[in-house]
Each structure stands twice: as C-alpha cells, then as structure tokens.
From TrEMBL:
It comes from the Bacteria. Residues 29-285 form the Glycosyl hydrolase family 36 N-terminal domain. It comes from Bacillus caldolyticus. The keyword Hydrolase applies. The lineage of its organism: Bacteria, Bacillati, Bacillota, Bacilli, Bacillales. This is Alpha-galactosidase. It catalyses: Hydrolysis of terminal, non-reducing alpha-D-galactose residues in alpha-D-galactosides, including galactose oligosaccharides, galactomannans and galactolipids. Belongs to the glycosyl hydrolase 36 family. Pfam families: Glyco_hydro_36C, Glyco_hydro_36N, Melibiase. Its EC number is 3.2.1.22. Keywords: Glycosidase, Hydrolase.
Length: 729
C-alpha cells in the first residue's frame, strides 16, 4: 500500500515511488514531520529528534519543559502558542485575536486522487495510480477544521499537498494566511535553487547556500510572473545534475505566490509554499470552505536531472490534458515579428504561401486583426474583425490558408481592455480598480475584472463566437500586463482583498470552459512571453510561449532554466530574424534552428524576404524536425552542459527504448587555440552501439563514460546537432 497508518505508533507512512514520507502524532494530537527521503521500511519517530529544554522556547505544559512547538518539526504549524517560526496559516477571529490551535481529529485513506474544486491540479487516470490521505485537524474552540490533503503516486517519487479550510463554528473567520504546505527539515545544510528573471530573461537558475533567516521567492504582481517562478528546490551540497539528493517544490497556481525557506536558531529549515499572504484575506462565513491550490513535491537521489525528469513526465501526462497532451505539435509560422500591426490579407497570404512551400504546417495570425487595432493603444476588448485589413474576415483568410495545406491559428488577449475601446466605454467598471484612484495603465491597457461572473460570462461567449467563426485549430492566449489597483466594483469592502485570488478562479473557469468547448484547438498560453509559465496554465493549455526573447543565445539560458521543471513539450521556441529584434545579435540560421528545434518548433520572421539559400535551409530544418519531433517533445531529457556555468551549453533527448537520441551542443564565443574537449552523453544503453551521422559508430558506454570529441569550429555562436541511432546487430 502507498499509504499506511500504524495506530500503535500513531504514524502515517506515505510511499511514493522509491521515496518515503513519514508523519506522527504527538502529545494531544500535534502532527509532526518525521522523515522525507529515500524509501525506508520504518522510521521510529522518537529517535528522529531529541527533546531538550531549550531556553526561550515556551512550553505548552509547565510540567514538561522539553516539549515546545518552537522545536517540534510540524506538518501545518500555527503562530502564537509557542512556535515563533513562520506559520502555514493564520486566522483572525471576530474578537480580533489570531491564536488558533489545530489538533488531530480523524483521517481517511483511499485510492485515487480527488479533483480540487475550481483549481488546476495533477490527476490520475486510474485510481490504482495513487493513494490519498486526508488528515482532519480541528480547533474545538472556534469550530475551524483544516483537512490536509496528501496524494502519493505509485510510479513517481511524488507527493502532492493541499489544504481545505472549513468554518464549522458560529462566528465569521478571516483567513490571513492559507499556504498549501509546510515541511520542517532537520537540518539547513542545503543549497537553495530558484528561477528568477525578467521580461526577455525568464527562469535563470540561481543556486546559493541557505542562510539563517528567511529566503523567499514570491510574486505580488497578480501572475506567477517573469520575475519569479512558483518553484524552489533544496539541494544537497554535493548534488549536481546527475547525483545527490534534491527536494523540489512546484506550485500549481498562476497568481500571487510565496515560496519560502526559514532557517531558525537551531539550524533547521522550514519550507512553505502557497498563495502569497501579502494583500490577501478570505472571509469564511459559518458553513463556508476555502480550498488552497496544490503543491507538487518531488524527491530525487539522482540529482537535478532526476528531479526534472519526474516533473517532466508527471506534468506532461498527469497535469496537461486534452487531445493534444500526447499529440505531436505542429510546426508554425507566426506573423508578429514579420509584420507587427502593419499587414493586410494579401501580405498574410503571401507569408502562408511561402510557408507551405517550405513544409510548415500552421499559420498563426497575431495581434492587430480586430477593432481599430493599428497599434497597442486601442481596441483590446473589441473582438470584431477589422474588415479594412481582412475584407473576407477570419473565415475567408483561414480558408485561403487551409487551401494551401496549412492549419490556421489566432492570437487573442481576452483578459485585457484598452481605455480606448468600445468595451471600456460601455463598461468602465469592468476593469480592476479602486474608488477615486487613477487607473494605472500598462502597454496602454487595463485588466478586466475576472473576479466578476458577468465579465467571465461575456468573455466566454465573445471569444467563443470568434473561435466558432472560422476553421481555427490553434490559439495563442496572451496576457500583457500585471495587476495594479486591485479591487472589484462587485465585492463588498470586507472581501476586497479576495479580488486577486477570485480573479484566478474566474480565469480558470473561463479557460476550462473554452478548452472544453473547443477540444480540437491547441491552446498556447503566453504572458509577454514567459510571464505566466507555470503548472496552473499547463493544466488548461499544454504549451506556453517560453519568452518574447527569440535570440538563440539568450534562449540557451531561458530554455535550460525552464527545463528544470517544465517538459519540453510545453516550450514554444521559434526561429526569428537577425539582427534579433530584442537584443540585436546576429546568429546563424543553423544555430537559431538548433536552439528552436529543442522545443516546440516554429518561425517568427518574414520568410518572403529570405534568400533562396535561406529558404532551402528552412525547408531542410522543417523536414529534419518532423523526423525527430516525437523524440524532442516526448523523449527523456538530459542536461549536459550548463550555460550558467561556462561558455557552452548542451542537452539531449533519448527515446524510451534507448534506441535513438538527439544531442544538441552550443558554444557562445570562440576562443583562440582552444583545448580539445569531449562531451559525455547520458541515458544510453551501455551495451548498445550507436551510429552518429557524420561521426561513425560508438559504443553507448564509450559515449557516456569517455565522451565524444567535439569537432573544431571557428566563430561565435556555433552549434552542432547529432542524431544517434542504435546499430542493428
């Protein structure tokens, strides 16, 4: 069994894959954390920590000065009754106090995994894939119950956690803090990894030792954001990509979040994650409940690659949903960097004609097709075709594209409204705002108030009408600014600080409805590129535009960092023009192709202006990617050389049966009289021989243990891509 309870020791043991997670009840029902790591047969809780009389750690019972919540490793701690560390939750009573005391009431263990009401979460296809433990904690004085939800997957070293609050008392309760999980580690002898960044520079890897005090990654922007990602990891000092212990924490949510590690006076580390308590409250009337989003916790004893491969497989097969989950993704051409807002039907059709000749499969019409949208200062919200640009409408354009043998895709930004739009003039109260304050704009737009049911209903019907008007098979769903003046005209004063989370619940409802109505459409999420690349989005849309920065050299770090958590099938990657529009760099079409072929492949440039030689190279790239597409999008991914640690980057993709692999190598800057170097591969069968096109036959053991010599190449921004195939004996 994946989950067991021993009534004699009052111990819960969750077995997930090859990992164990153990908890135990102490004293009058306090739930303590005992162990998380490599699978063990049993753990004796009383041996895991010594009870000492610690100065300035108060005691719940004066008769026992060795028992304090300040030193007890806990599963869901509170603040105010002897624990001074950061709490997992905080509740304010009608009398203004915030002291609560949760004790064990009951539990239940069952097969499968329940859905979280209104929220994205990982799932099972058969109940035998996982077991779930629900532990009910209660505060008898106020009638508060908190159900801690744990699911242990059978196949993977994965445990998911969430919490549900229920007010079963007679007075109103106000949640001030409602995190999804907390884990107390017995030591702080770890490094901390997170994924900070900025627009055009998303998800760079930062690793540093834990220090005394609080270190946190968080967003207060109304989105998971470019600046931080809802993921952190604790990494053993000796751990690297391929060996050592790693503990990963990934939050399945797309809004404001907090991921925090607190190292206390005794050098223990408390990890907590959930909705950011900053500017958040939630009023719980008697009889009401509140569900927190899910945290996916992964243990690996095979380094960062081991952790990543677990996240990749889980998120690709048990988070992403729909018809495109397991389907190869089409090679596309997007007109944005080719035309921006300056296009007409003839120009678009000419791009599509050239794309068809090169073997591209999907044409995507980006921003500028609706209202009076000749620039980014107007018309968001007016989802009516601009007949001046498209006299035959979307349907006419799409049919012309289809006749060329291409599918047709469309860009939308349904969460925003331009002040200069018919929608805003008709409904000025439909955007986020607070009374008597100016409405800050970003990219000349405001954020629609998705906490309102009427706004969500309008968007569902309006965008549905657009998508039903033409043979559309792909949608790029964009969101190009963060929240300010976060308030809603539809909420009373005591619920205003619920707005940001209610927005996310509304957004998830809209996305669930849209993807259900149009199951034949491949939805790709976007937020100024990678500003909302998070697990919450992947539940509704199986891929995300990785970054607005399409420069090949910049993308080495962006895609490498993104791969720490997110599967390759989720990463949109395009070849764009040079000099690059974001950084001005000039990289070869070969290198741009190799970087983009390391994700969901496409182009974003005016291919009608390319030379015949360049068009021929694109035709070859398209043909090659079609041949290796399934391997890239669904193979096992290995990081080989980090662009964060040197002048090179390398990664590879290996088929499930290890009969085929694809290796990509990149060098940023040339070096005079450089030494010879060798690249060690991973994931191959050591007893199998492999042929590398153009290099010969090698043993799998030689490729992994001795490595393959890198051919000498001069110049900056070079790349090599090798395909390996097992030699039939």
């Amino acid at each position: 069994m994946a989950v067991t309870y021993n009534p004699q020791t009052k111990q819960f043991h969750l077995r997930a894959g090859k990992a164990s997670y153990v908890m135990q009840l102490f004293r009058s029902g306090y739930l303590a954390h005992i162990y998380w790591g490599k699978a063990v047969r049993d753990v004796r809780g009383e041996r895991r920590f010594s009870r000492l009389d610690r100065a300035f750690s108060p005691n719940l019972a004066p008769s026992d000065r060795t028992f304090s919540l300040d030193t007890l490793p806990q599963e869901y701690p509170a603040y105010g009754n002897t624990d001074f560390r950061s709490p997992a939750y905080q509740v304010q009573l009608e009398n203004g106090s915030t002291v609560t005391d949760l004790r064990y009431k009951t539990h239940r263990i069952y097969k499968g995994k329940p859905r979280l009401n209104g929220l994205p979460a990982t799932y099972v296809e058969h109940e035998q894939e996982a077991e779930t433990l629900e532990i009910v904690l209660g505060d008898a004085l106020i009638g508060l119950e908190v159900t801690l939800q744990y699911t242990a997957y059978e196949k993977w070293n994965v445990i998911t956690r969430a919490a549900r609050f229920e007010n079963k008392g007679g007075e109103r309760l106000k949640l001030l803090r409602a995190l999804s999980m907390s884990v107390d580690f017995p030591t702080a002898d770890y490094d901390w990894i997170h994924l900070p960044g900025a627009w055009g520079r998303e998800r760079w890897i930062e690793r540093r030792p834990l220090v005394t005090g609080v270190q946190a990654a968080e967003s207060r922007r109304g989105a998971s954001s470019h600046q931080q990602n809802p993921f952190i990891a604790l990494v053993a000092k000796n751990a690297d990509e391929h060996q050592g212990e790693v503990y990963g924490f990934s939050f399945v949510y797309s809004g404001n979040f907090l991921a925090q590690v607190e190292v206390d006076q005794f050098h223990t580390a408390r990890v907590s994650m959930g909705i950011n308590p900053f500017d958040f409250t939630w009023l719980l009337q008697p009889g009401e409940s509140f569900q927190t989003p899910e945290v996916v916790m992964v243990y690996s004893d095979q380094g960062l690659n081991g952790m990543s491969q677990t996240y990749h497989e889980l998120y690709r097969t048990r988070l992403a949903r729909g018809a495109f989950r397991d389907r190869e993704r089409p090679i596309l051409i997007n007109n944005w960097e080719a035309t921006y807002f300056d296009f007409n039907e003839e120009k678009l059709v000419n791009i599509a004609k050239t794309a068809a000749k090169l073997g591209i499969e999907l044409f995507v019409l980006d921003d500028g097709w609706f209202g009076e949208r000749d620039d980014d200062r107007r018309s968001l919200g007016d989802w009516i075709v601009n007949r001046r640009k498209l006299p035959n409408g979307l349907d006419g354009l799409a049919k012309q594209v289809n006749e060329l043998g291409l599918q047709f895709g469309l860009w939308v930004e349904p969460e925003m409204v331009s002040p200069n739009s018919e929608l805003y003039r008709k409904h000025p109260d439909w955007c986020l705002h607070v009374p008597n304050r100016p409405r800050s704009e970003g990219r000349n737009q405001l954020v629609l108030d998705y906490s309102r049911e009427d706004v969500c209903d309008y968007i569902i019907e309006t965008i549905s009408n657009v998508l039903a008007s033409a043979p559309i098979t792909y949608v790029k769903w964009d969101m190009n600014r963060h929240m300010t003046e976060i308030g809603s005209a539809a909420l009373p004063p005591e619920r205003q600080r619920e707005t940001a989370h209610r927005y996310m619940l509304g957004l998830y409802r809209v996305m669930d409805e849209m993807t259900s109505r149009f199951p034949h459409i491949l939805f790709e999420s976007c937020s100024g590129g990678g500003g909302r690349f998070d697990p919450g989005m992947l539940y509704y849309m199986p891929q995300t535009w990785t970054s607005d920065n399409t420069d090949a050299v910049s993308r080495l770090k962006i895609q490498y960092g993104t791969s720490l958590v997110y599967p390759i099938s989720a990463m949109g990657a395009h070849v764009s023009a040079v000099p690059n529009h974001q950084v001005g760099r000039v990289a070869s079409l070969k290198t741009r192709g190799h970087v983009a072929m390391s994700g969901n492949f496409g182009y974003e440039l005016d291919i009608t202006k390319l030379t015949e030689t360049e068009k021929q190279m694109i035709k070859q790239q398209v043909a090659f990617y079609k041949d290796v597409r399934r391997l890239v999008q669904f193979g096992t991914f290995y990081r080989l050389l980090s662009p964060f640690e040197g002048n090179e980057a390398a990664w590879m993709f290996v088929s499930a049966d290890r009969s085929e692999a694809l290796v990509a190598y990149f060098r940023v800057l040339a070096e005079a009289n450089a030494p010879l170097s060798y690249l060690r591969l991973k994931g191959l069968d050591p007893n199998q021989d492999y042929e590398i096109e153009g290099l010969g036959v090698y043993g799998g053991d030689e490729l992994m243990y001795a490595g393959v010599a890198l051919p000498y190449r001069s110049g900056d921004f070079i790349s090599m891509m090798w395909r390996l195939k097992a030699v039939q004996r």
